[in-house]
Amino acid sequence: MNRISLPAPLRDELATIAVDGYPYETCGVLVGACAADEVRVEKVFQARNLNTERARDRYVLDPDDLMSADLAAREAGLEIVGFWHTHPDHPALPSETDREAAWDGYSYVILSVSGARVEDLRSWRLNGEGFAEEQVAA
Fold first, then answer.
1. Residue 38 catalytic?
2. What are 77-91's pLDDT values in tens digits?
3. Dihedral (CA of 49, 54, 99, 120) sign
4. Residue 86 exposure: Cα atoms within 13 Å on the Cβ side
5. Which long-range contacts link 117-120 to residues 24+ away (Cβ below 8 Å)?
6. Which residue pairs from 72-76 have beta carbons closer than 8 angstroms and sit at least 24 positions apart in sequence?
7. 23 preceded by cis ω (within 30°)?
8. Annotated catalytic residue, options 25, 38, 75, 134
9. Listed residue (39, 44, 37) closest to 14, CA to CA
C-alpha cells in the first residue's frame, strides 16, 4: 500500500472547506512532492465545482483553478500530486464516475461529509482499471 502524508493542519483546512460546502461536492488540488512509495502533500487548493446541475453528487474541477494551482506549485518547486473532493452523505469510497475521470499516477483524497462534520477521509490511487487505497499519515 502506498502512503500519503497529509499533515493535520491541511486535513483541518480540507474539513473546513468540506463542511462549509455541504451539501454540495467541493473539490480541489493537492500540491507537494512524490517519492518512491510516498506522496507528501504540502499545500491544498480549493477549486470551483463547475457542475451546477448535479453539484450534490458530482464535481467538475475548474480548469482555471487547476492551472493556478499548477503555477503556484511550480513557483514553489513542487508539483501537483493529486486531487481531493467530498462525498456529501456518502462514504469516502471512489464511485464509478470518480474512476472514469481519474488519471493514473495521482492521489485522490475523498472526504465523507454529513451535516456539520467530516465522517471519514481516505485516499486512493488509480491502479490500472481500479483504485488502490493509500495509507493516510500525518
1. no
2. 999 999 999 999 999
3. positive
4. 29
5. 117/19, 118/14, 118/15, 118/18, 118/19, 119/92, 120/91, 120/92
6. 72/31, 72/43, 72/45, 73/31, 73/43, 76/31, 76/42, 76/43
7. yes
8. 25
9. 44
Give yes or no for residue 43 having a pLDDT over 70. yes
Say which CATH number the domain at 72 has: 3.40.140.10
Under 8 Å between Cβ of 47 and 65? yes
- 124 near 131, Cβ under 8 Å? yes
pTM here is 0.96
What domain range includes position 89?
3-136
DSSP class per residue in 36-69: SSEEEEEEEEEE-B---SSTTT---B-HHHHHHH
Per the prediction, the chain carries an average pLDDT of 96
pLDDT tens column, 50-85: 999 999 999 999 999 999 999 999 999 999 999 999
Please, what is the Cα angle at 103 between 98 and 106, to 5 degrees?
100
Q: 84 vs 14, 28, 120, CA distance in Å? A: 9, 5, 13
